[in-house]
């Protein structure tokens, strides 16, 4: 698989994993009955929105640098859902910011109100992101009149209402539940996390087996996939029953690697349901490697992006964790004592 294709999945995995933390925390805040976990969730939300917004920008810049021709192929089709996603994400972060401001003023009731209002926006962002993701890989929503001439038009009913999109989205929702239980070490909800993880694996595997067979066959034929499955259950148990150091980092890393593995298992093929095998190789779909930017721009741009990603995303994440989350945790402890 082309290394530049793999390179694109790194910022994608970072964004997806970061948003999973936010979405899971946000949904659980009004539902969680245990105050000690709810406080940590609120602090986490305050530390995340800068990371997520910057991650999305970095992801788009990476896409434009690595796969500039893809924008011509997918731009017209995905313009509307991408625009709606960005608007909804902005409203979503506005509500979280309002909740954080209310908290700093001691207005706890307003904080809870704003966080509750942000929940449907988080779910909508997740659904739109999932729809774009599944559409690019499957081809649902792409009405290809002449692929060679790039005559492609959107079919939004097919994009949003196909069974693959909904089944995969349900799998992601259950994974978010598992992730949240593990991330916060909610021992009281271990069984919920266990059931959610099993359903997530089942739904994602079933959907890929039916609509992305290349991903499914690559996964089940790879021993690292089974190691990954075992680790998800192990991290759930250890994270909820043992006070292990850096629990959040372990589940973050595991999820990050899971998204990268999906990219590897796809073998860099997109639009697999509208381009049959034999047209562009032995596998169905379009190989993403033929849509790469020219080699000179690709090498220079990837180097700059790699350095920028390490400095900007790594630095922003470290500062957010240290200044906002850790400092907030210390302040909460001071108030209690």
TrEMBL record:
Transmembrane segments: 6-31, 43-72, 78-96, 117-143, 163-185, 192-211, 223-239, 251-272, 303-324
Sorted UniProt keywords: Membrane, Transmembrane, Transmembrane helix
Domain of life: Archaea
Protein name from the UniProt record: Cytochrome bd-type quinol oxidase, subunit 1
């Amino acid at each position: 698989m082309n290394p530049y294709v793999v390179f694109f999945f790194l910022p994608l995995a970072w964004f997806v994993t970061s948003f999973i933390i936010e979405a899971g925390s946000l949904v659980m805040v009004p539902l969680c009955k245990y105050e000690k976990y709810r406080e940590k969730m609120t602090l986490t939300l305050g530390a995340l929105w800068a990371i997520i917004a910057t991650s999305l920008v970095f992801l788009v810049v990476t896409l434009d640098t690595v796969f500039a021709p893809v924008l011509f192929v997918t731009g017209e089709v995905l313009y509307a859902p991408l625009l709606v996603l960005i608007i909804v994400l902005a409203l979503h972060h506005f509500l979280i910011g309002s909740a954080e401001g209310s908290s700093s003023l001691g207005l706890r009731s307003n904080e809870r109100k704003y966080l509750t209002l942000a929940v449907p926006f988080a779910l909508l962002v997740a659904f739109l992101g999932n729809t774009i993701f599944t559409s690019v890989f499957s081809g649902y929503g792409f009405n290809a009149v002449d692929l060679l001439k790039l005559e492609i038009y959107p079919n939004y009913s097919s994009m949003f209402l196909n069974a693959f999109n909904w089944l995969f989205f349900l799998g992601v929702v259950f994974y978010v539940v598992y992730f949240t239980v593990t991330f916060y070490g909610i021992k009281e909800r271990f069984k919920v996390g266990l059931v959610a993880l099993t359903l997530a694996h089942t739904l994602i595997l079933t959907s890929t087996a039916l609509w992305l067979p290349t991903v499914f066959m690559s996964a089940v034929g790879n021993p690292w996939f089974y190691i990954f499955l075992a680790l998800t259950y192990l991290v759930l148990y250890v994270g909820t029953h043992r006070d292990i150091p850096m629990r959040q980092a372990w589940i973050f890393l595991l999820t990050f690697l899971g998204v990268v593995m999906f990219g590897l298992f796809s073998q860099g093929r997109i639009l697999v349901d509208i381009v049959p095998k034999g047209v562009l190789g032995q596998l169905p779909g379009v190989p993403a490697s033929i849509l790469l930017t020219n080699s000179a721009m690709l090498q220079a741009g990837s180097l700059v992006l790699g350095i920028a990603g390490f400095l900007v995303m790594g630095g922003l994440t470290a500062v957010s964790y240290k200044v906002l989350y850790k400092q907030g945790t210390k302040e909460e402890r001071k108030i209690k004592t």
